[in-house]
Amino acid sequence: MTVDRERSVVFGEAVEQYDSARPDYPAQLITDVLEYAPPGPALEVGAGTGKATAGFAARGADLTCIEPDPRMAAALTAKCPGARVEIGFFEAYVPDRAFTLLYSAQAWHWIDERRRWDLAHATLAPSGAVAVFWNHYVVTDPDLRAALAAVDSRYGVTTSSMHRDGSPRAERSEHELAHDPRYTDLDQRHYTRTDRYGTGRYLDLARSVSAYRILAPDTREEVMEEFAALLGRDGVDLTFTTDLTLARRAR
Ligand SMILES: C[S@@+](CC[C@H](N)C(=O)[O-])C[C@H]1O[C@@H](n2cnc3c(N)ncnc32)[C@H](O)[C@@H]1O
User: Fold this and answer.
1) What crossing angle do the helices spanning 142-154 and 217-231 adopt, rounded to 10°?
2) All structural domains of the chain with their residue ranges
3) 194-226, pLDDT tens digit by residue?
4) With a threshold of 0.70, does the pTM exceed it?
5) Which residues have any ligand 1 atom within 6 Å of their CB?
6) What CATH number belongs to 5-249?
């Protein structure tokens, strides 16, 4: 599978919506990543508006962030003024130092899968850590989830995971690094929590997801109206799982 470059940068069209509707990452995950990584400079790939960056910055991490979308990068700089921000694609980034941590939140799947582990390896110091993680959110109530999924399928939306059971990344039987001798200490962790979203915030969350962002604006709003009718005024309980993969560059 190659990366859909156009789809990978649709997020900047709705920066504020993205930033307010998307969930943060668990504080425990940030603690675990920083404990796993040796001390030293960290590189974030696909930092967006800084939803993960803020957590690492608050712990005093020495951060360089790569983000190709200038609108996302502007929000990132405003939120995390201490981080160095490089505007561009990771595939074109030339590191100026050896990083002891490379992390990527909700973005590693956008990096060319034929090259991303080579690029990470070239970026890391020996024993440097890589941490890639994704928030996966689903509507908790199975009946409501099925009704929302039926709307998706009527509009030909097949790639939204918001209304599907299970966590696609967690379910993969074997990790792509399992047999890569350049990496060691592979470790996968999962963090689960629940939250209640008001209907408006839920719609903003859906609007921030690339599966809906790529729809024509009128069609997207029709889908949102159908979601709103199903949710009513009560809002919706969501179950969030954050899937983290940790590995270390072998010496
Ligand atoms: C779903 S957003 C995640 C943003 C942020 N990390 C977060 O957790 O909210 C994906 C981000 O990856 C960025 N991106 C897409 N392709 C990229 C690439 N090849 N190199 C670096 N970043 C990329 C997008 O611009 C976008 O900001």
Assistant:
1) 160
2) 5-249
3) 999 999 999 999 998 889 988 999 999 999 999
4) yes
5) 8-9, 11, 22, 45-48, 51-52, 66-69, 72, 89-91, 105-107, 110-111
6) 3.40.50.150
